[in-house]
């Protein structure tokens, strides 16, 4: 039995989250590569082009705005910061303003960035959430759970401009509303931004999505949720680990499912890979301890190289 087969034979266990039932009636259409912008054969990306120093600076700059819960002034400033940085290096940024159906008075804002011609479907989405947990006195800084994914995406955006044809096949999406208003994400509370993007893209969904969440903590252990991951994406993940020589003790597979922003896409038929750090037994998660003290250059750099290696393999 192959390594992949061994993983897929594991009895279904749900770790700390529950399966989300499909909320839609439509059968989504996933864009085939032949419908998407073609790419000239070119030099592959170099994983070493990812600068952990630049990613760390992005993380620190986002955190300098303070906690960034949905609807806050700091969230608005963060959106302006991401928008201006991407625009400056040639990405076209679209602001998607929406209200979740269950919260018609709540204004939320996703950011979607494409390189080159806008409004054509991209083959692969790289995503993260940029809202942080809590509000008022309970608001947390979210250095890892909020800023780290965006920091890696911003540095990846720079590296991708070195390969314009490849960049044109990728979309960067920054989700609002990942965090729930209640204590935990449920089928009704949280993942508002990703759910909205799936609804908005019915008929032109990407083929692949790689989502980053809590990817900058020192000594992190990544736990890819097995039950949400297609076999091809799991194989890509394991191959990338092998190529980069990353330890399987820290880049692991969770034998279960995870409620995170990849889930609405996975349920719509997109091949997803959710790179998320193990957090269930942590002492820092959703607390004031989630600050820049726990972010490391090494951790951000590892994540960036992993994503670049995945892009080399998949596209
Ligand atoms: Zn969170």
Features:
single chain; alpha/beta; 15% strand; 33% helix; Aminopeptidase; binds zinc ion; 9 helices; two-stranded parallel ribbon; six-stranded mixed β-sheet; 315 residues
Describe it.
This protein has 315 residues and is of the alpha/beta class. It has one domain: Zn peptidases (Aminopeptidase), CATH 3.40.630.10. 33% of the residues lie in helices and 15% in strands. The chain has helices spanning 3-8, 52-63, 73-88, 143-160, 164-167, 192-200, 231-244, 262-267, 297-314, and strands at 91-98, 108-115, 124-129, 170-175, 208-213, 222-225, 251-254, 271-276. Strands 1-2-4-3-5-8 form a 6-stranded mixed β-sheet, with helices on both faces. The longest helix has 18 residues, at 143-160. It is globular and about 45 Å long. The two termini are 27 Å apart. Mean pLDDT is 88; it is low at 8-40. It binds zinc ion. Zinc ion binds at residues 133, 145, 179, 286.
Rg, please?
Answer: 18 Å
Uncertain segments are 8-40
CATH architecture: 3-Layer(aba) Sandwich
Classify the beta-strand content into a percent band.
Answer: 15-25%
Main pleated sheet: 6 strands, mixed
Query: Any idea how many domains?
Result: 1
Spatial strand arrangement across the major sheet: 1-2-4-3-5-8
CATH fold label: Aminopeptidase
Q: Alpha-carbon distance between the termini? A: 27 Å
Tell me, what is the CATH class? Alpha Beta
Arithmetic mean of pLDDT = 88
Number of helices: 9
Concise overview:
With 315 residues, the chain is an alpha/beta fold. The chain has nine helices and eight strands.
